[in-house]
Fold:
Amino acid sequence: MVGQTVQGQQTGGYTPVFGDKVRTVVYILALLASVIGLGLMAFGHPDIGGFVSTAAGIIAAGFGVTYNPVRLAGK
Structure:
């Protein structure tokens, strides 16, 4: 039951650090940044595009780790 919600309420002992809206906005921005980075890599400046895509992935992954119930497996 850890991480499951019932009508917006947490049923387990785990509370996400960031709310659903914050995570959604971060993921959408990271997706857009990744697409822009891909465009830069393909059609313009590969070094800048690679940096933008990598940074977007790291930021999205960082927000994903903060609410991932898998990290609670050892507790």
Summary: The mean pLDDT is 78. The first helix runs from residue 20 to 43.
